Amino acid sequence: MAGAMVEAELATGLGRSRDNRFEMQSQCIAARKSHADAVRARDGTEVARPCPACARTTDHRRRFRVNDCDILQCSSCGLGRTETAGFDPAAYYTSDYFSGRHADGYSDYLGAELVLRREFARSVDFIRKYRGTGKLLELGCAYGFFLKEAARYFDVTGIELAAEAARHARRAGVHVLHGMADDATLRAIGPLDVVVLFDVIEHLPEPRETLAVCRRQLNPGGIIVITTGDFGSMAARLTGARWRLMTPPQHLWFFTHESIRRLAAGLGLVVEHVDHPWKIVPASLIIFQLRRMLGLGRATMASISRCGIPLNLFDAMRVVLRAP
Ligand SMILES: [Zn+2]
Description:
Blueprint: H1 7-10, H2 14-25, H3 29-42, E1 46-51, E2 56-66, E3 69-74, E4 80-83, H4 89-92, H5 113-128, E5 134-139, H6 145-150, E6 154-160, H7 163-171, E7 176-178, H8 183-189, E8 192-198, H9 207-217, E9 218-229, H10 234-239, E10 253-254, H11 257-266, E11 270-275, E12 279-282, H12 283-293, E13 308-311, E14 316-322
Parallel strand pairs: 5-6, 5-8, 6-7, 8-9
Antiparallel strand pairs: 1-2, 2-3, 3-4, 4-10, 9-14, 11-14, 12-13
Bound molecules: zinc ion.
Zinc ion is lined by residues 51, 53-54, 58, 74, 76-77, 79, 259.
């Protein structure tokens, strides 16, 4: 769980690098062929699952299998879901996640602080177009870089699952609670004007329940700002199982415009804005990904963590939901 808008770029090529390793390790063409047949056989079959966006049980189509997880898609709203057993977020989102020691995590989050904060300052400007001031909560705030920028205009609080990241933010003077966003924690924080989930909702085991908890604390006219991948985007549809954000079990959900709209409507929220914003991404992140795709080892990237590169693949969306 990251609290950073650059996370979309991080996952680039994960599926591809795993496939490459598979290719390299496999000496047997027949084994590869039977594996491909097995994948094809699973594709297209339908099963019933409760859809958190539609808020009812719907038919789900098996789309593909990635990292030993089945990826299903709601036939009604298009929401993708990861079927996995035994994924423990608390065991996964540790300091390793932010420092390049997880293949699906961040390359050098702390070293990229300057680039990230420049990007987060732009996010604050964006949010202020919809709500200029008041109490702001960020779920999955990592080291608190966004909150430091937001604190210039808002009374800020963060919730972060990675204990070391939460400690780091607190040492930097940011009000960050360690743990999950449950009802008791949100009630203790009090009424909110802005709730921010940057590349976080796709990681939540119960996205509808978590948003409902936030919704209950939202003042009239308050907003929830979400960034997440767009499963309905051209890039996602063209690349399928190899989409850069198709990284289960880290990503549990793959939202579309329609699934966001239904999820919001069911919680009494109005979709006020949707776009696919440009982002400034740390160069170290892009190189981290390229090296992984090419099967190269990790490199020290402190010197280039400070460089930012504008990037937009139009497959990640930014959504503003408003409480009437
Ligand atoms: Zn649905």
